[in-house]
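Retry 2 of 3 after timeout on previous attempt. Resubmitting structure tokens to design endpoint.
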């Protein structure tokens, strides 16, 4: 399970409990999977497949190292070591492009596995993590031997509920993808059917995925029990299953919306409050700060379409890039899929970060919990005035949060009250924000950070390279 990829200091205290085939344990550098005895031989057989080795080499399936049995006990469970993924993310933080990538991985993996007599027993996006925008399937025990006498994929309904319907409702009804946080098993077809117009119910893929199954299920309930099917020929079963996977993939691609312009998705091209000299000066400062900091893990807050995320990735950092604008993040994700860089783009609002959820609020940790102790550098460029004026977060609280999400470096852009973008956000509230001065900003950050370098651009904005005070708690 993805949540078990967390560092020991931040992971939930409860063990994996949903999978009857095994459990996970976390060490500082690896994930240790224990496979119950009844599933040991099947796991050995799976790992021995040339297909499994190829999928691991392609970084589409998590690598697995079989750990020695110290006591040579034949009844001891199998133990595997998996590598850690740099940063854990969840579907409710993904832009549409990542949802589609996770669906493509799931269905293509299922199609390749069935050729070798294996199949996915479940089909949830929670089985997928991302390294940059490269999806990797991490739940090894979701793969089991296929019954090739039955041309039915029993995870079909789960794929529809957890992949297809969230994307369909997002594209056609405007339901936000982050709402899936409160729908662990996805959306029920009956609920989506009620929300769709008559015309939408009759269009593909809603017709095949929602309307016809509902009508047929009602008919089945009112009729006699169905006659059991005769076992199918394995070759026919494989053909039918692969056609099922291909049709679902086509449906998923059909409902995934294309990039649409938004307020911020074209910001980099339309930021007229920066002159050419300001842009050049800003990029030079950020480049120099990144060169001096040499971060390993960097969080870019307010990444927009990723200009500075790419600079950070080019410097060698594993970058997590977050923004509140889904279209901007989706545009960045799409560009990264075409031209890869070590950047994971997520739709996260730092003023309202992803909360903890799941059983006892311990299955899926909060975004800030996942950040704790992970990032040695944070970029916050032209963000702080949004936190101050839109989210109404006081300066001392912003400074304290910055000190919690970086272990060393903070590269920040202060936007002064005279800036036109600051004035836009004021909306006639000048009288209640007279305290937001440069002096107040410096005072708020002084207890947590030392200034290594600063520069003032011609437009009045100030760039800071801060170093976190090691005595800060």
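Retry 2 succeeded. Sequence:
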């Amino acid at each position: 399970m993805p949540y078990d990829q967390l560092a020991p200091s931040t992971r939930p205290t409860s063990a994996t409990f949903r999978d009857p085939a095994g459990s996970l344990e976390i060490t500082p550098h690896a994930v240790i999977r224990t496979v119950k005895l009844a599933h040991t031989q099947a796991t050995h057989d799976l790992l021995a497949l040339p297909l499994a080795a190829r999928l691991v080499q392609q970084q589409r399936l998590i690598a697995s190292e079989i750990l020695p049995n110290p006591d040579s006990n034949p009844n001891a469970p199998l133990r595997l070591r998996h590598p850690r993924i740099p940063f854990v993310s969840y579907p409710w933080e993904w832009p549409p492009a990542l949802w589609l990538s996770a669906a493509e991985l799931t269905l293509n993996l299922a199609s390749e596995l069935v050729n070798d007599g294996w199949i996915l027993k479940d089909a949830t996006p929670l089985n997928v993590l991302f390294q940059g925008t490269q999806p990797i399937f991490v739940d090894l025990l979701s793969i089991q031997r296929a019954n090739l006498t039955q041309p039915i994929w029993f995870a079909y309904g789960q794929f529809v509920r957890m992949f297809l319907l969230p994307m369909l409702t997002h594209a056609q009804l405007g339901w936000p993808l982050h709402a899936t946080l409160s729908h662990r098993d996805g959306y029920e077809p009956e609920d989506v059917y009620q929300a769709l117009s008559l015309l939408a119910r009759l269009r593909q893929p809603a017709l095949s995925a929602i309307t016809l199954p509902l009508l047929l299920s009602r008919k089945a309930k009112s009729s006699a029990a169905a006659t059991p099917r005769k076992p199918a020929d394995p070759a026919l079963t494989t053909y039918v299953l692969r056609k099922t996977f291909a049709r679902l993939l086509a449906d998923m691609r059909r409902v995934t919306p294309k990039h649409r312009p938004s307020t911020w998705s074209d910001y980099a091209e339309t930021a007229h409050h920066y002159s050419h000299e300001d842009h050049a000066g800003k990029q030079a400062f950020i480049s120099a700060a990144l060169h001096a900091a040499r971060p390993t893990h960097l969080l870019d807050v307010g990444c927009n379409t990723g200009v500075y995320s790419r600079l950070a990735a080019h410097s060698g950092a594993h970058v997590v890039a977050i923004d509140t604008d889904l279209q901007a993040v989706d545009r960045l994700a799409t560009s990264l899929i075409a031209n890869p860089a070590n950047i994971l783009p997520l739709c996260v609002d730092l003023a309202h970060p992803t909360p903890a959820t799941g059983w006892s609020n311990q299955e899926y940790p909060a975004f800030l919990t996942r950040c704790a102790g992970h990032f040695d550098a944070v970029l916050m460029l032209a963000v702080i005035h949004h936190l101050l004026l839109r989210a109404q977060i006081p300066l001392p609280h912003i400074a304290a949060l910055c000190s919690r999400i970086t272990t060393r470096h903070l590269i920040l852009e202060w936007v002064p009250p005279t800036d036109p973008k600051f004035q836009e956000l004021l909306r006639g509230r000048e009288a209640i924000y007279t305290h937001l001065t440069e002096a107040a900003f410096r005072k708020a950050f002084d207890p947590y950070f030392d200034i290594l370098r600063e520069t003032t651009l011609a437009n009045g904005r100030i760039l800071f390279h801060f170093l976190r005070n090691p005595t800060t708690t």
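Attempt log closed. DSSP finds 17 helices and 15 strands in the chain.
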